[in-house]
Amino acid sequence: MAIFREYKNTGKDRSAEDRRRHRELIEDSIKKNISDIIAEESIIGKSKDKKIKIPIKGLKEYRFLHGTNKPGVASGSGEEKRGDKISKPRKQQDSGQGGADQAGNQEGEDIYETEITIEELIDYLFEDLDLPYMERKKLSKIETESTFKKSGYKKKGIPPRLAKKRTMIERIKRKKAYIRTHDDFDEDERFPFHNEDLRYYRIKEEERKESNAVVICIMDTSASMSQTKKYLARSFYFLLYQFIQMKYQNVEIVFVAHTTQAKEVTEDDFFHKGESGGTYISSGYQKGLEIIEERYDPAHWNIYCFHCSDGDNWSEDNQKALQYAQKLCDICNLFGYGEIKPNYTRSAIKALYSKEIDNLNLSLVTISTKEDIWPSFKEMLESD
Amino acid sequence: MEFSIKELIDWNKQIEDIIYQIGLDCYPQEFEICSFEDMISYQAYSGMPARYPHWSYGKAYERIKTFYRYNLTGLPYEMVINSNPCLAYLMKDNSLLLQILTMAHVYGHNDFFKNNRLFKEGTNADYTLEMFKNHAKRIREYISNPGIGYRRVERILDTAHALKFQTSKVINEKRLSREEQVKRLQEKYQPQPKEFQLLTDEKAEQEPDLDKIPLKPEEDILNFLIEYSDLEDWEKDILQIVIDETAYFIPQIESKIMNEGWASYWHYEILNHLDLPQGMHLEFIKRHNQLISPNEGGLKLNPYYMGYKIFNSIKEKNPEQPEKLFEVRELERDESFIRKYLTFDLIREMNLIKYDERRRYYSISEVADEEGWREIRNTLASSVGMNKFPMIKIVEFSKADNILYLEHEYVGKELKMNYATETLKYMTELWGGVVQLETIIDGVSKKIICDEDKEISVKGV
């Protein structure tokens, strides 16, 4: 006779630990593939709390398996003829085209779709990255955000700061005291709150002292900067922008677009508008220097200046550009020059910088493809 | 629950009576009533009440749950493990009929576990639960040992899981120690006194190389690592744990179609013998038909369907020998079962087709007709059970160039490349040196080499 064991609610979540570990490993894999995700056009310039869906390949349990060329047997309808073709579901087709990752219809190919906000993504991205040369410059003159902190109790205050728990305690104290002195007190009797029971939080204002940062983004928007190049530059700035914002509470960003002339533009224009014309790189630097002089005293501000260009400068401008670049290196914590060169060549201007400028604050990188963005970004910030 | 335990016990009594009449030979049965969440958990851990922790079970849990969330098969009802007493779970939210159906089905599996040769020889049902519990305990001890810790245990488990199916397909094979192997080789090559000394050609037998590692090509990779790698003892112990658990599951992998077919055949018989009220009878027919539906169009094959069909046909073909069925369930495994009993008639009845995979589509290469059916049967037989896994043999460890040579036994099916390279990396991780695998890619022999830094390179032979 079989034994039946009745249902017991143990409340135990047996697989919790293994699920947690699995998720942790998935997060790791997101982090590893993040540059691919970031290279997707769709997230650039989007608002931070926008949720994006990213497909994550489930962690594979690798083992030796047969590939896709193996034949199979299935039950059909009886209508099939030799040579009939049955198309694959789209997803499989895609992975089939992917070459290396020919996943096919095997079980074990699990794609999880995880929804994360761009902010979370950025957090993952920058978790292990730090800003170089982050000095605490003199404390800022512009007011930093002040926060309020609870600190003790007081008897008078405004209703929103009523400390309910403390008030309860006070009433109980008073009640116990009352009982001690009144033997005839009936426990069931109502014992209402009194004004003197009320307690309020005492609030202390805390001023946070933060060093301030300004990021000056200078972008070449001349005609030679094709759509692709501009896209690469913008993706790069997008990362930068997010990153600096995360690391500093107080960060100001200045956008400068230049052709032969430079002007300060809004964020929106910077990321979305195109221009045309020739190139004087020096004009962008000059504008940057002007802005620094006017608004951001290097003694108080951490200044980060970045320039993206394809390096197609008119040669008569090169010396002037070099001169200004040197100056920028001197006053900025970091001056980064990202060269956008889809064909892996190298421009005269970059060669000139690396030869002539001997300053730790200078960082030069070349970006050729979408996939380069993240590594170059890291390289630029990690450079010593 | 829409039923009481009392009702279950009553129905079970009736089922047991029928089982006795029809001659099923079962271990004592235990049913545990559990919640949906418990059920998914049990499924993730292959039904074991205790099992060592590993992220892959967390993944399995999430996958199974997603699977049910999208309602791909309705509610989970079947979970039974090969142990003595046989342990099965009943999900409390299922209908009474579903519980009855599950119980009947479980007895089918129970009988199969107790009587099929693979299970009898390859597993020790008396100690199933103890074994898994003991393994869990050992692994947890390694994890909580401050000198080892979670990550290092995980590293070994990841690798062991990747390689666990690279093992002998012979059930319950006795492994010879190196000394025994050496002794056998020596005996074999001992010059025998010959009867016609002068007449026979004095062909010098090649002396066997007794220093060779391994002595003969080895298909059991984890055992090879235990014998020849310089892993620490606790690491080897973990490998041994995985080997033992894999050995427990291999009979199930090797007999999926038979096992499900057998259980489905008997639940159908049993429920027809039961005196079910009409409403429940209709639900039974509906459930049964779902369970053994052909899965048409999805280019899949439902093992319940196939197994059920074959057992039915065996019964019809042998009306005078009811014991024939029992004999088949005792002796066969999926591969032989299909080769012997999947007939032309059955293939035609089931409209089986053979397909080849192309990049964007599947192309149908054989249909169920006079010319095609044998090919269909053979293709199926050679892809079921452990045949899913390619055979990789360790040929030699060359001390001179410090390379471990592996060979893929090519049977017309290529390796899935990205999986092969990742698995090789695992191999390198534990072996600690260069590993080279010879296989065939696009019809050409290639060497896939994984060096110490786990860099993969592919070269022509």
CATH architecture of the largest domain in chain A: 3-Layer(aba) Sandwich
Helix content of chain B: 40-55%
Total E-strand runs of chain A: 13
Broad shape of chain A: flat
Helix/sheet category of chain A: alpha/beta
Mean model confidence by pLDDT of chain A? 76
Question: Proportion of β residues of chain B?
Answer: 5-15%
CATH homologous superfamily classification of the largest domain in chain A: von Willebrand factor, type A domain
TL;DR?
The complex is a heterodimer of chains A (384) and B (461). In chain A, 34% of the residues lie in helices and 22% in strands.
Question: Key terms for this structure?
Answer:
heterodimer, A: 384 residues, alpha/beta, Rossmann fold, 3 domains, 6-stranded mixed beta sheet, two-stranded antiparallel sheet, 22% strand, B: 461 residues, alpha+beta, 5-stranded mixed beta sheet, 3-stranded mixed beta sheet, 18 helices, 10 strands, 51% helix, globular
Describe the SSE topology:
The complex is a heterodimer of chains A (384) and B (461).
Chain A: E1 3-5, H1 16-32, H2 34-38, E2 51-57, E3 72-75, E4 85-87, H3 90-97, E5 111-117, H4 118-126, E6 146-154, H5 164-181, E7 200-207, E8 212-220, H6 227-247, E9 251-258, E10 262-265, H7 267-272, H8 281-295, E11 301-309, H9 318-331, E12 334-340, H10 348-356, E13 362-367, H11 373-382
Parallel strand pairs in A: 8-9, 8-11, 11-12, 12-13
Antiparallel strand pairs in A: 2-5, 6-7, 9-10
Helix pairs in contact in A: 4-6, 8-9, 9-10
Chain B: H1 5-22, E1 29-34, H2 36-44, H3 55-69, E2 80-81, E3 86-91, H4 96-115, H5 117-122, H6 128-144, H7 150-163, H8 178-189, H9 221-228, H10 233-254, H11 256-273, H12 278-291, H13 303-317, H14 323-331, H15 334-341, H16 344-349, E4 352-357, E5 361-366, H17 373-381, E6 391-398, E7 403-409, H18 417-431, E8 434-441, E9 444-450, E10 456-460
Helix pairs in contact in B: 1-4, 2-3, 4-11, 4-12, 6-7, 6-10, 7-10, 7-18, 9-10, 11-13, 15-17
